[in-house]
Design brief:
Number of domains: 2
Strand content: 15-25%
CATH superfamily of the largest domain: Vaccinia Virus protein VP39
Order of helices and strands: HEHEHEHEEHEHHEEEHHHHH
Radius of gyration: 21 Å
Number of helices: 12
Low-confidence stretches: none
Mean pLDDT: 94
Structural class: alpha/beta
Length: about 290
């Protein structure tokens, strides 16, 4: 266990913020974890170890980074705020000088992060994701970095529920289905607002991801995602109606569904990722 002296607590975080003249912004989803036990718990639940190369998004002042560094081979921290990106190596050097060589900081937007920006391919993603972009960031990183075998992300509780929801659940939707293109997703815990500064108005949830077998190439992924988007664009309508625009007409949608072995009267919320894939494969390639 990492000692408290090598971690960031509430006092140190507020002192750092004062030193930097930092005012957390909603634009970048800046809510900093001030509880050492919470970040230790995240690292423990993530199951990462000495062989893992961890990608961390939005390290902020470094709370989670400091919990990860003593445990894993290395951490690549991607921070959009240039002030925080510049300060993070200094913070690690002050509190954990023995681990600073394991840290790489990239001042970039995770939404546009590409493999060529990293010197080493990550095997795991562990992050407190900004609330406002958590789903697109997660899906982008899973697409861009196929060597990420596992992820443990903290997101808004409502988003955690949506990501982990199974077919037939009222919260099952586009995020749930698309995340399962890459592997298995489950909700593994809750985090109260009191462990953050400033405190958000909502609870957070922990989501665990484990990558599965490759389902197809990027062209097929785009086709499957187009089917998912269409199926949930009119959630209450049957697939025959919801997919009409995507397929070209209700008749074309019904024909494609029947070729895929899917009943046209079903709704998108009833289908799993395998069934969405069958629909994409049954459609003409120009759909």
């Amino acid at each position: 266990m990492v000692a408290d002296a090598a971690m960031l607590g509430a006092g140190r975080i507020r002192a750092l913020a004062a030193e930097l003249g930092l005012r957390p912004t909603k634009q970048w989803g800046q809510n900093f974890v001030i509880d050492a036990n919470t970040v230790r718990r995240i690292v423990r639940v993530a199951g990462v170890g000495s062989d893992d190369v961890v990608l961390e998004v939005g390290p902020g002042l470094g709370s989670l980074t400091l919990a990860l560094l003593p445990v894993v081979a290395s951490v690549t921290a991607v921070e959009i705020d240039p002030l925080l990106a510049q300060r993070l190596p200094q913070t690690v050097g002050e509190l954990q000088p023995e681990t600073v060589g394991r840290l790489t900081v990239i001042n970039a937007d995770a939404m546009s992060l590409a493999p060529e920006q990293l010197t080493v391919s990550p095997t795991a993603l562990v992050a407190n994701l900004p609330y406002n972009v958590s789903v697109p960031v997660l899906l982008h990183l899973l697409e861009q970095f196929p060597d990420i075998a596992s992820a443990l992300v903290m997101v808004q509780a409502e988003v955690a529920d949506r990501l982990a929801a199974p077919p037939g659940n009222r919260t099952y939707g586009v995020p749930s289905a698309k995340a399962r293109w890459y592997g298995e997703v489950r909700r593994v815990g809750s985090v109260p607002p009191s462990v953050f500064w400033p405190e958000p108005r909502v609870d957070s949830g922990l989501v665990d991801f484990r990558r599965g077998e490759v389902r197809g190439d990027d062209a097929l992924r785009r086709r499957v995602f187009a089917v998912i988007d269409a199926a949930f664009s009119q959630r209450r309508k049957t697939l025959r109606s919801a997919l009409a625009g995507w397929a070209g007409s209700p008749v074309a949608a019904e024909e494609t569904l029947r070729r895929a072995g899917i009943e046209p009267s079903e709704r998108g919320e009833q289908l799993n990722i395998d069934e969405f894939t069958r629909i994409a494969l049954a459609a003409p390639t120009d759909s």
